[in-house]
Amino acid sequence: MSTRKQPLKGIKVVELANFIAAATTGRFLADLGADVIKIESAKGDPLRYTAPTEGRPLDMYENTTWELENANKRCISLNMKDPAGKEAFFKLLDDADVLITNWRVQALERAGLDYETLKVKYPSLVYALCTGYGEFGPDKDLPGFDFTAFFARGGYLENLRQKSDVPMNVAPGLGDHNVGINLAAGVLAALYHAKLTGEGEKVETSLFESAIFNMGMMIQAAQYPDVGVKYPINIRESSNPFNACWRTSEGRYIQTCMPDYNTYFKKFLTALGLTEMVEDERFFPVQNLHENGLGTTVYDRVMSTFEQKSHEEWAQILTDADIPFALAKTWEELLEDDQAWANDCFHKMEYPNGERVLVKHPIKFAEMGPTPYNKGPMIGEHGVEVMKELGYKEDQINEMIENKTLYIWEDK
User: Fold this and answer.
1) How many CA atoms are closer than 13 Å to the CA of 164, on its beta-carbon side?
2) Helix (H, G, I), strand (E, B) or coil at 28
């Protein structure tokens, strides 16, 4: 194993955030060696209590979602409405390199925690802000989750649904993780600049902005309404019938992706045994397909062909033909996926009730080697040690605990 030092060792990060997106940024920095100190209320981050809606038992000692977003961090629980709690927060910032927050803009301004205020006292601080809809505009103070600000407002649900059906189901964290890694990229650039020059920076992104970037190709294409098919579509009417999900004989689905219809036309149809279509000029090139209005014919022929074999049989045929494809897998299957295990996507964690498989960040470093995976902290677990690091004495800490300014986790 490599003995190379983690690249962010010695960097101090204060995370004043809840739920997923901003926490993803903090988790990434913690994996790279930063000392990430998460600030919670006495009740804790609402994310600690989402297990029942995710199909998991509610157990503070076996909280797999909490680990995913908050492993390798420390936690202090402060009452930020108490002047003594606010003072402790500012002491944390005195030698911090990065502040991560997802508070809404108005709340930050009311608390005196907006960038313009803090940069006066902390000119070298990298201030990382994650919001639902961005810092400006009429909706900047709306509550934002990935279901709403990312998937709905950002163009996924209306445009990617089957035209004849309701929008797809979405799962929590999909947009948040995307945004969190985007913010981490900005933080690392700003941190590099700060270490070179001593000049801090505000880095911001939002669920809404990230969704727009992700949808950039199609949003730009929407300026040409007379070309192509207007979304939402039924997949049978797609401009490229080869980019579809095909139902197999046992009811599984295989997705193929052939961005250039012309390049793959002969190879794909030959692999499927539809050789009579290969020489038919009505179907090739794609311009002829569109002029003759035969995209649905190609789709229907391919679908009926796929329904004649199992997904295992098609996997071999498509692999031999070098056709880009993938089986639409269940989450249960992903836990057993050899490709995922071979690429270190998972970590086995021991809990009181047994071993569980946890998902790791998708970015790896060859020389540094695997990052540690320490369980996410309990509420206020590191409160005493962090306060002592800030110079607080035992009696001061005890007084803050008695006054409910500082909450310390105790095993129940």
Assistant:
1) 4
2) helix
Separation between Cα atoms, residue 354 and residue 367, nearest integer Å: 32
Q: Which residue has the tokens 């927050």?
A: 101
In whole angstroms, what is the distance from residue 270 CA to residue 37 CA? 58
Tokens of 31: 């994996």
Q: Which of 283, 273, 266 is nearest to 308 (CA)?
A: 273
Q: What is the pLDDT of residues 254-297, one digit of tens each?
A: 999 999 999 999 999 999 999 999 999 999 999 999 999 999 99
- Residue 388, token pair as written in the block: 């002592």
Interacting residues of 339 by C-beta distance below 8 A, sequence separation 6+: none
CA 286 to each of CA 178, 222, 236, 238, 262: distance values in angstroms, whole numbers, following the listed order? 34, 20, 15, 12, 6
Q: What pLDDT does residue 229 have?
A: 81
242, with CB counted inside 10 A (0-12, 13-18, 19+), is buried
What DSSP assignment string belongs to 285-332?
SHHHHHHHT-HHHHHHHHHHHHTTS-HHHHHHHHHHTT--EEE---HH
Q: Is residue 72 left, alpha or beta, with left meaning phi > 0 and alpha meaning psi from -120 to 50?
A: left
Q: How far apart are CA 170 and CA 212, in angstroms?
A: 17
- Token reading at 68: 């995913």
- Predicted TM-score (pTM) of this structure: 0.94
| b/e sequence 186-209, b meaning 16+ C-beta within 10 Å | bbbebbeebeeeeebbbbbbbbbb
Look at residue 359 and give its three-state secondary structure: strand
Strand partners, 13: 36, 98
Q: Are 144 and 132 in contact (CB under 8 A)?
A: yes
Q: How far apart are CA 338 and CA 344, in angstroms?
A: 10
Name the CA dihedral angle for 31, 32, 37, 42, rounded to a multiple of 10 degrees.
-10
Tell me how far CA of residue 208 lies from CA of 148, 160, 211, 234, in angstroms: 9, 17, 5, 26
Choice among 31, 45, 146, 176 that is catalytic: 176
Catalytic residue status for 322? no
CA contacts within 13 A on the Cβ side of 241: 23
Residues of the chain with pLDDT under 50: 1
